[in-house]
Design goal:
globular, 221 residues, 7 helices, 0% strand, mainly alpha, single chain
Length: 221
């Protein structure tokens, strides 16, 4: 089960993201007015995340991993979460203002109407839970014995894998997401659980759509 999990997370997900990125840009070159069924994208994302999360769960059971979802909120952990969220949103605003990463396909993912937003929120909620469980929980702990119990190296490898798993958004996005992932690892380390990281992850993703969604869709067209 562990080998299957590693193959899916380390190989399959980055490869599928890369293929999706290439396909979207191929469609853009074929015609500027093409539209992606965003609802289908959200449903596909929910299905893939849930399926991978199930594999991660059984991997954790087979390896006897202790994945802490909830622990008492410490002041340092909450403060780290708040500061990280503020810094992440500040960077997102700066990147949008300076029109960085024009290759990003994010405009094809963000919702445009209220019906899509319902599916978007569901997808973001599932992603926040599953990605923290998969990458900051199971993958991180699976990597520990492989890195001679190195907390930093395990977190770094997990963050890189997480970044490449978001290759659908483009190469520059991968390099931007890796530091974000390390920030989530720090929150998990300080809180000794995944819950605060999950909450921050969800708030960040929804806030990007609320604060910058319209600009992202218009500026990248």
């Amino acid at each position: 089960m562990t080998l299957l999990f590693l193959m899916l997370v380390v190989v399959a997900m980055p490869w599928l993201s890369y293929v999706s990125f290439r396909n979207i840009h191929a469609l853009e070159e074929a015609g500027p007015d093409f539209k992606i069924s965003k609802r289908s994208v959200y449903i596909q994302s929910i299905t893939m995340q849930a399926g991978l999360c199930i594999v991660a769960y059984f991997t954790a059971r087979s390896e006897n991993l202790e994945i802490k979802l909830i622990s008492p909120f410490s002041f340092n952990a909450v403060l780290a979460g708040v500061l990280f969220l503020a810094a992440a949103l500040g960077f997102a605003g700066f990147a949008q203002k300076n029109k960085q990463n024009k290759e990003s396909t994010l405009r094809h993912i963000l919702p445009e109407n209220n019906t899509d937003r319902l599916f978007w929120i569901a997808a973001v909620m599932i992603a926040a839970f599953c990605e923290e469980y998969i990458y900051r929980g199971v993958l991180y702990q699976v990597l520990l014995p492989l890195t001679n119990q190195s907390l930093i190296l395990s977190a770094l490898i997990s963050a890189v894998v997480f970044g490449f798993g978001h290759g659908t958004q483009g190469e520059k996005a991968i390099m931007q997401i890796i530091p974000f992932a390390l920030g989530f690892h720090l929150i998990v380390y300080l809180s000794d659980s995944l819950l605060i990281a999950m909450i921050v992850h969800f708030i960040y993703n929804t806030s990007v759509e609320i604060l910058f969604g319209k600009k992202i869709r218009s500026s990248q067209e």
